[in-house]
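Need tokens for this chain, all 348 residues.
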Amino acid sequence: MVFNIFYAIEMRQFIKYRLWFVFLFVLAGGTSCEKSILGGDPEMEAPKVFEFLSDDIENRYSYFELKNIDWEEVKERYRSLVYAGMDEMDLFDVLADMLFELEDGHVNLTSPFNRSRNWEWSQNYPRNYNQGIINQQYLGKDFWITGPLRHQIIDSVLYVNYRTFTEEVTNQAIDELIKRAQGLKGVIIDVRSNGGGNLGNALRIAGAFTPTSYKYGSVRIKNGSCADCFSSWTDLRVEPKSGLIFSGDVIVLTNRESYSSTTYFAQMMRENPNAILMGNSTGGGGGTPAFGELPNGWTYRFSSTQAINNEGEHLELGVPVDVEVDLEKSDENNDIDTILESALDRLR
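Here are the structure tokens for all 348 residues:
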């Protein structure tokens, strides 16, 4: 059911807006057909473009209430800045500024010349991660590379470094990881500064650390403009992998740059009785993006679902850690990772 609800969201947006063709074309750097995608005179369509985007957000964006956003007020304020014949770059800036007010890392406007974004969910916080120190002092020269997972045994603890959930983790890779972990004191999974990716990878990894199925939250889809226009809540569950699992202690390291699917992974592991979270709260990103295409050919996305933990708290706001630890500057200057050392001390 977990996969079905996210698959349904993606398919609905694909059918309605034909996003993927346009998005892949832009990524591919298409130029010969640029005018046909943008339309003959995109500047003249500015009011139409504005209304299309603002109305779609009103109908399908999922976090107005949580973030106390008065979208009608926002629309009126930015509508006054839009006029027929305005330059397309000026129009882009107005729309990007309007979207910025959603305070959401899953909100983007993509044109052939720019992509808007809001990264304040991480930029206003200490990073608490130094990849150079990890590479030189902890992974060393003889670490293993299993798919996208880099891992090293440190004082009878398996340290696993995973940079992005966009890189597929196969069942075979997980099996190899779990085999190496057997007989050790514990496993540390470092997903600090992992910006997310494929939720399926998160589910596969989490399933390797539990013998039983368990609920880690709930999700619902926005389906209308009213405040209460949502589908019913659907359970989010972790299912155990078949075969060998690791039933010992697990520590997951996160920071504010742990976002989207990484936030989901943190919540999955937070509900595992053998796991604890250390470091800093994740950055959030609990809403699954819906996609669209504007009349002038620009594409966009925004959060269209809500996800909550078992206590009813929104994942959009981040998953808190069990043990708060910062990377001390004095340690960093001496090539020591305070957060990782704290995790190792718990398992040694």
